[in-house]
Design a protein that fits this description.
Helix content is 24%, strand content 26%. By secondary structure, it is α/β, with parallel strands linked by helices.
Amino acid sequence: MGIFCKIAAMFGFGSCDKEETSTTNDQSTKSAAQAPASKAVETAASGSKKYVLIGAGPASVRAAETLRKADSSCAITMIGLEVESPYSRMALPYYLSGMIEEQGTHLRKSDVHFKDLNIDHVHAKVEKIDAEKNQVVLDNGDVYDYDKLMIATGSRPANCPFPGADNTGVVNCWTIADGREILDTIKPGSKVALLGAGFIACIIVEAMLKRKVDLTVMLGRTGQMVSRMMDETAGGMIKSWCEAKGVTTILPSSIKSIEPGPALKRDDDSLTEFDLIIVATGVYANIEFLEGSGIETDDGIIVDSALRTNVDNIYAAGDVAQGVDFSTGGQSVHAIQPTAVDHGRIAAVNMMGGSANYKGSLGMNVLDTAGLVSTSFGSWGGVEGGETATLLDEENYKYVRLNFKDDLLVGAITVGRTDYIGVMRGLIQSEVPLGEWKEKLTEDPTLLMNAYLAQSLDIAR
Ligand SMILES: Cc1cc2nc3c(=O)[nH]c(=O)nc-3n(C[C@H](O)[C@H](O)[C@H](O)COP(=O)(O)OP(=O)(O)OC[C@H]3O[C@@H](n4cnc5c(N)ncnc54)[C@H](O)[C@@H]3O)c2cc1C
């Protein structure tokens, strides 16, 4: 288990991706790499099923391995636009902080893992899906036929909100290539500006402080940090924690543009020079190439509980899929790795004709910002007609917020406490009725473990 998997497991991200072993090493299908360019690529002996997976991240890797485990003769083609072996973006901060080497970000240890499983990993960009012909078209002109297709193209960083993001020294933190550029540029004492204060930005803060850089962080519009996963109290605590660690915070309204240097042009026209500016101002699902395919999209690709899109034989998984949301019953993009891995497995089972249903992903964030761990689960902001109990010790950076609907725990936030993570997730996801414990928890939220044990045992009896 890699270091980031250990950390994920510790915080209750149970499905940090693990290797699926193959039942076969069958080499009967023809490798796409041997096929000439600009023509239809043969991938399978006649009669064998052809599965094409777009993307080579955690969702596709899990899908490919699930398919191979169940069917030794099908053709599996996994198409990803990056040149690297499949890797985890989630591991990038650990690479940046020096906890792991680049190899440690790879989803599978062996470089020949996919070759051994006869999973064809093609490095190219998919430009178009022709759903009528059951074909995908790549930017190199190659065309792949499919019986079943899964789209797992993930997301990408949102455009920088200021002009000048194309200046040298301005980077995202999204790919291994970005990671290399950041590490090549910074050294202890380097001046780094981080534009953004969301989930990913906060993880980068941790890595940058470990590298001992002089860090400036641009807050969200409201002056808050992690406003999309934490309430004002929790966001305020994280901000003051960072400031106490020497981080300078600035508001977006104080920035006019990015100038060569790179430098930030401030509202008074002064220039502040940096060695590096990292842009982390949000993400978008990679869905543009689906135009004209007939596949229904919103924030992501709309999928049902079997991960099927509205078009026959086409499924979607991971960050690009807008699937069932456990808390609301509606559809949301939950751009976290455990959801991507679950999606990949379930989509694969259904592509093979099985019947697996996704119960819905629980919005769940565990964040370590320069040593201060904060979490949010489910309906963290509360629900209409619900009730909320809080316990706050601002001075010591400790906060618990519990949100109830009737006698169910439906959402929670913690700052500075890791002892409730598993219990909170369990109570919310298992929808354990709290009965009389709801009143007790309202008076003292620290009784969570007692409530969990009492009510779960009650149900077991
Ligand atoms: C810095 C950082 C830290 C993170 N930390 C966490 C964390 O702590 N916990 C957590 O749960 N999640 C975290 N995440 C999010 C997590 O990495 C994603 O949820 C996960 O990678 C989603 O997997 P995926 O397979 O859906 O997409 P991705 O991993 O994004 O993979 C998408 C794949 O599609 C390919 N692709 C895109 N477009 C095309 C195209 N047109 N043609 C061919 N290939 C294409 C890409 O090259 C890539 O191979 C973090 C992300 C980042 C960037």
